[in-house]
Structure formats: C-alpha cells, structure tokens
Prior knowledge:
Blueprint: H1 13-21, E1 26-27, H2 36-40, E2 46-50, H3 56-64, E3 69-74, H4 77-90, E4 95-99, H5 102-108, E5 115-121, H6 141-148, E6 149-159, H7 162-173, E7 178-180, H8 196-203, E8 209-215
Helix pairs in contact: 1-4, 3-4
Amino acid sequence: MIKSYALRGRMSHAQESSYKNQAKYRLPYSESPVPLQELFQNTGPVICEIGFGMGKVTAAIAGENPDKNYLGIEVFKAGIGRLLWEIEKCSLHNIRVIEHDAVEVLQFMIPDQTIAAFHIFFPDPWPKRRQNKRRLIQRPFTDLLVQKLIPNGYIYMVSDCGDYADWALRELSETKNLYNAYEKFSPPQHWRPETKFEAKARAKNNSVRELFFRKAETSITAP
C-alpha cells in the first residue's frame, strides 16, 4: 500500500511524558470495528481529523464544542504526545487518538455511516509529479470517506498548495454521493483557528484554499 506520509521527528520530554501518562485517550489499532458511542460514552456526533499535526487546533476546536466528539488519526508520536498534553492541560474529555495509518483505520475500525465530519488540514502535498500518487485526497480513498460519513456529513480540507487544492477539488467533485457546498473553493470557516503552519504560509504569500463538501442525504445508485 502506498503511504501518504513519511515518518519524521522525535518527542520532547514533555510530549513523551504525556504520551505515557495519558494513554487512556489513545486507542490501539485493531482490525475490529469500534463502537464509537461506547468509546466516547455518549451519542454526540463524531468528527474525525486525519493528520492533526501537533494537535493545537484539534484541542481548540474540541474545547469550544464539548457536545461533540473528536477522533484524531495521526502517525507522528511527537504530535500525539503534544495533543495528549493539550488534553491534560485543558481538561478535555471529548478527544480520542488512534496512532496508525488513516486508510487502514477507516477500512477496519470505523463503522459505515458513523462519522459526522472529516477535517483534513494541510495534508502533505507531495508536490513533485512522481509523488502525486502519495497524496491522501484521491479516489478511491475519497469513496471510503463517503462510506464512513453519515448523510449530510461533510469533508473539510485546507491546503496552501495550489496544485494540490485543484487536484483535491477535482477528486472530490468526481466522488459519488458527494457535492460541493460552494461553487468552487469555500470561504474560511470562522470556527477553525489558524494553525502555525498556516501563519507561515500566509507570511510567504502562499494562497490558502479551502474545500467543503457534503455527502448527499440520499445515496445515488447506478441505474
């Protein structure tokens, strides 16, 4: 399987400490479906963030929405450790983390039609043409996202790579049972905090583009 990421970075002492001490918020990977209501011990909507980086934005959004549940999927231990530190610092109880490849997590762990939204903020653009095959947002992965979404659930992606944004717009537009909530790119969503990565991109005058797609309320079947 082609990976959409390359492992890098080391944990700081504080991140390593949180990684160990807040293990109750980490869910081990398995090939068995996870009952999400039991995992969060409530019936609130579940928002899944793929590749949350250092987790600061994840924690901020979760803190502003205690009635919603947040499932983060990440492969970088330093980022996981940092998010777990944020969870401890802010006394958050509505976040869980899975440390594994997102494709396999969605294939095996997440039941169909259980996710209210997918957040994908600044995924690796793999800008060289020979690397494009490693981009996360492309079919058939986008079909898998739709399979896991509830009706009217959404996919929200942000990128500072124009080529990747155009690529994702095309891939999402051509995904069955998914429609663009805007004519092309979406305006900034007021509830999403600016990331440190985004601030650096804007400082370099890199255009930040946002995509907001929804799953159709009624599935369209082939004739």
